[in-house]
Specification:
By secondary structure, the protein is of the alpha/beta class. The chain contains 12 helices and 10 strands. It has a single domain, classed as Rossmann fold (3-Layer(aba) Sandwich), CATH 3.40.50. InterPro entries: AB_hydrolase_3, AB_hydrolase_fold, GDXG_lipolytic_enzyme.
């Protein structure tokens, strides 16, 4: 039976598979990706409508047993890296025994998570089902980031907020009972992009701090767990769909057009920017900034499969030389694990979430 693609719990219309394959071409600027964008006001209205639908879809997703945990507490963080000043929230999910940490002195690893939604919709609580496995299997704190969304905040605000979230945890590690030498990032879809690019942006920022003789506490981001990421905006959506073995199961043009028009701004934005398209980063940049361990998942029916697979292979080879665990999940579309079925979680999520967390647990134990 064909699986209906969803966008963070929202079922979306299946597109016909009969469209001819487009002529491949490299997109250079945002204008190439979105030739005739709606007004920013119109984009805000459309984003608001989709956010409402997403809320309903995720509410259904959360009903399936076992219910995902709720955040233990929330922190509001002021941006320090972004040129667009503001604030964002961190949702903290804490493991058993955390409340006694102040007495026992115990510190925990932390997984910093970024939700999906094309940088336009979604919430920090969306990945709570995955968070439950982090708490139970890794005995780690799960910190999910409510980064600021487009179109109100286009690139690079989300990347800056993502790096700022990690920086905040490093600087606040003692108060939050976090071991700053046992950090990891994780993310889904757009958030999977941030799981990668946040470490790159943080590395840039730390280099700038060192240049100004500003110190930062000792820390280590040991791993990134990235689920079906978008990694190369120089590829057109039409070309991506044409590479899919099931183009009828890929996200439709109306939603991907909204995402791209919202996030890819201003019009002269270069799409090969490494913090936007990490596949376009140099070997030197990736070798320096990406954590030593990478857990990488893609979906067989996803239009993002090929670019994800290519980046995973590249990270493992010289001169980058990361330790990569890669798996392509067969016969599932993009975002399959956010099924809005209120009766049961999406197929294979239990085994795959467990598998991912076992990798993180082993990495934290090294």
């Amino acid at each position: 039976m064909s699986k209906i693609p969803t966008v963070d719990g929202i079922p979306v219309a299946i597109i016909p598979a009969s469209a001819p394959a487009p002529t491949p071409r490299i997109l250079v600027t945002a204008k190439d990706a979105v030739p005739s964008p709606p007004s920013r006001f119109s984009l805000k209205l459309s984003a608001g409508w989709w956010r409402s639908l997403q809320y309903v879809g995720m509410s259904l997703h959360f009903l399936a047993s076992p219910r995902p945990p709720s955040p233990s507490f929330t922190k509001t963080v002021k941006s320090t890296i972004s040129k667009t000043k503001g604030e964002f929230e961190l949702q903290f999910y804490t493991p058993k025994g955390y409340d006694e940490a102040k007495k026992t002195g115990k510190t925990y690893p932390a997984v910093v998570n970024f939700h999906g939604g094309g940088f336009t919709i979604g919430n920090g609580t969306d990945d709570a089902r995955f968070g439950r496995y982090v708490l139970e299997q890794c005995d780690a704190i799960f910190v999910s980031v409510d980064y600021r969304l487009a179109p109100e905040h286009p690139f690079p605000v989300a990347v800056d907020d993502a790096a700022d979230a990690i920086l905040y945890l490093i600087r606040s590690a003692q108060d939050l009972h976090i071991n700053p030498n046992k950090l990891a990032t994780s993310g889904f879809s757009a958030g999977a992009n941030l799981a990668i690019t946040s470490t790159m942006r943080l590395t840039e920022h730390i280099d700038s701090l060192k240049a100004s003789n500003t110190s930062i506490p000792e820390h280590q981001v040991r791993a990134v767990a990235t689920w079906y990421p978008i990694t190369d905006y120089t590829l057109s959506r039409a070309e991506r769909r044409a590479t899919s073995v099931r183009p009828d199961q890929t996200l439709p043009d109306n939603i991907t057009s909204l995402f791209d028009a919202s996030y890819l701004y201003p019009r002269d934005l270069l799409l090969a920017h490494p913090l936007l398209s990490p596949s376009k980063a140099s070997d030197e940049q990736l070798a320096k900034a990406i954590p030593p361990n990478v857990v990488f998942y893609t979906c067989e029916w996803d239009m993002l499969l090929r670019e994800g697979e290519e980046l995973a292979k590249r990270l493992e080879k010289a001169p980058i030389n990361k330790k990569v665990y890669y798996k392509m999940i067969p016969e599932v579309p993009h975002g399959w694990d956010k099924s809005p079925d209120p009766l049961k979680p999406a197929a294979h999520t239990d085994e795959l979430y467990r598998e991912c967390c076992q990798h993180l647990k082993n990495i934290f134990a090294e």
